Amino acid sequence: MGEESRCLADQPFFFCGSATLRQRALRPQLKREPLGSAMIECFAVQSSDDGARFELRRHNQGHLVAELHGRGLDASVLVSAYMFDGFADFFGGLATDWKGWKGAREWRALEGELNLEAKSDRTGHIYLSVELRDGAPPRWQVNAALVLEAGQLDGLAARGREFEQSITSA
Q1: Which of 17, 34, 64, 129 could be a cystine partner for 117, CB 3.0 to 4.6 Å?
Q2: For residue 140, what is the domain's CATH number?
Q3: Residue (of 131, 168, 163) closest to 146 by Cα position
Q4: Which residues are CB-neighbours of 144 under 8 A, at least 6 positions away?
Q5: Which phi and psi angles does 33 have, rounded to 5°?
Q6: How do 38-40 and 53-58 pair as beta strands?
């Protein structure tokens, strides 16, 4: 079998790396640009209740790969990196309002391949709905709900900011 690249979750941070190099999983896997700036290759969120996870990583200059993994679910779709702005603000807003909010908060990729929706309850849980769609109109779509704890949000906001900067500055 070939070597498979995956995002490895080590609470509370998520790092990307090779599955065959697990000893390196504790260090963030970064690509260095010629001038020394780091590019974050992967962003991952793991559900606190059932271990389901959402991963978003660079595929090439113009696209990302979004993946959903859970009980009986393994799906991936290419997501355009064009006009990827707002991803960091979405997670930053969740972290700022960690005590909860009314209604739903949403972020959508420009071409609709990836849609995120967050709702909160009064006990500090955030329900992140992740929807993947292939094509327009969609040939298929899947949706998974991830449960997040308020304590995860600051780390996700920081990683989301780093990830978006690496995508939009490339």
Answers
A1: 129
A2: 2.30.31
A3: 131
A4: 52, 54, 68, 70, 73, 129, 130
A5: -80, 160
A6: unpaired
Tell me the residue range of the domain where 147 lies.
Answer: 5-168
Domain count, the chain: 1
pLDDT in tens, the chain (170 residues): 343 444 544 333 343 443 333 333 333 333 434 434 455 689 999 999 998 999 999 998 889 999 999 999 999 999 999 888 899 999 999 999 988 899 999 999 999 999 999 999 888 899 999 999 998 888 999 999 999 998 899 999 999 999 999 888 76
Q: Starting at the earlier edge strand, list the strands of the sheet with 53-58.
A: 42-46, 53-58, 63-70, 73-80
Q: At what angle do helices 153-168 and 87-96 cross, to 10 degrees?
A: 160
Cis-peptide, bond into residue 28, ω within 30° of zero: no
3-state secondary structure (DSSP) of residue 96: helix
Contacts of 136 (CB under 8 A, 6+ apart): 111, 112
Beta bridge partners of 46: 53
CA atoms within 13 A on the CB side of 35: 3
Residue type, 81: A
